[in-house]
Design a protein that fits this description.
Length: 175
């Protein structure tokens, strides 16, 4: 019997950090909640990171996910922007890890391919597929839609090692 899992997907951003929570039970995806945590652009970097951290802690405490999935960042031409994104990404890794969750990471193209079938899908395609796969979801922003896509990706592809290990254990018990 497959047990239910609650997953949180996180789309890192210093300005807007998207989050999406889904339940997975017997292969069925159920939307639980989604949102965006925004930091105040007028504040110092440290204060903005604290704002993201506190907001994400509240989301994790409220929705009690079992696992977290985070989008890997990509390096762009603006080194300073890449570093800031990396720091926001660190918040997305640290908060769930401190809450005892196993954290998984996925490349942007893998997420797009997993959800839409195309590794270079645009935001509209991702949003449309999220709404198709989670018809009850009404993402409040493109960041929340991306976070739901990350959670969906993890539901389909994540924790393969654990699933293989569980299957091997079941086969061993039958022997």
């Amino acid at each position: 019997m497959t047990q239910s899992r609650r997953l949180i997907g996180l789309d890192p951003g210093l300005r807007n950090l998207g989050w999406g929570v889904i339940d997975v039970s017997r292969g069925k995806l159920v939307h639980i909640a989604n949102g965006t945590i925004s930091s105040n652009a007028k504040d110092s970097l440290a204060d903005r990171l604290v704002q993201l951290m506190l907001g994400l802690e509240d989301v994790v405490d409220t929705h009690q996910p079992n696992q977290a999935a985070v989008e890997n960042s990509f390096v762009n031409k603006d080194g300073a922007a890449t570093l800031k994104l990396g720091q926001a990404r660190a918040v997305c890794l640290i908060v769930p890890a401190r809450k005892g969750l196993k954290v998984f990471e996925y490349a942007p193209n893998f997420i797009k391919r997993s959800v839409t079938g195309a590794g270079h899908a645009d935001k509209h395609q991702i949003n449309a597929m999220v709404k198709t796969l989670l018809p009850q979801a009404k993402p409040e922003s493109e960041h929340a839609a991306d976070a739901l896509a990350i959670a969906i990706t993890h539901a389909h592809a994540g924790d393969l090692d654990e699933r293989l290990s569980n299957q091997a254990e079941r086969l061993k018990v039958k022997s």
